[in-house]
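Re: Re: ligand-bound prediction request (bumping)

Still looking for help on this. To restate: I need the protein modeled with S-adenosylmethionine bound, output as structure tokens. Inputs repeated here so nobody has to scroll up.
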Amino acid sequence: MRRRIEGRMKDSKDFFKKTKNDNVRKELKYFINKVEHKTGKAIELGCGAGVNTEYLIKNGWEVIANDIEDVESLLKERLNEEELKKLKFVRQNFEEMELEENDLVFACNSLPFCENDKFQNLWTKIEKSINVNGFFVGDFFGVKDEWYGKRKNMTFLTREQVFRLFNNFEIIDFNERNNMFPKANGEMKHWHIFWVIAKKIK
Ligand SMILES: C[S@@+](CC[C@H](N)C(=O)[O-])C[C@H]1O[C@@H](n2cnc3c(N)ncnc32)[C@H](O)[C@@H]1O
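Reply:
Sorry for the wait, this slipped through. Here it is.
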């Protein structure tokens, strides 16, 4: 057990080292530059090395950044004293986290790591936490993903299931990616990803 936890921590550390200088997700850039000019309170779930949290803060958002791993120092080293005032880090499993009211939930490549039987509960919590006229920007893994059927403790959704999550939202942008591209460690993988930018309307 101990060896397994140490193994996971080592994998995470390698992952954070490799993704520290990643580009900001293009969907987040699109959201900030083309969709919403107002700022407010954002929550990033599964923030990893913090490149997207940094971008949000530098664009005027207050951010609660969450991760199950201890990435607080990685986040802090990206920000100056003024910017740090806009950051709160919560190290917790997002399945158990209480979500404050917010104007944006951003979750990139992280919600699929929610256990399948806990996903609906997590989604209800996310939806409730977003103010009317607030946004969700994030992604979900589809059932054609290479990990589907192999990683039992993750969540994979069909296109219809993804759409059903957004009954109370206006979908502003929806994108499906279903192809091979490299993981952070350079190995190729077949990814099936749905990207959604949506505004909560009721
Ligand atoms: C693939 S990384 C993506 C990181 C970042 N969002 C990005 O786009 O670069 C997934 C992140 O989600 C975090 N994570 C996985 N399961 C989690 C959970 N149950 N609660 C909170 N964070 C979780 C991992 O520690 C990791 O930092």
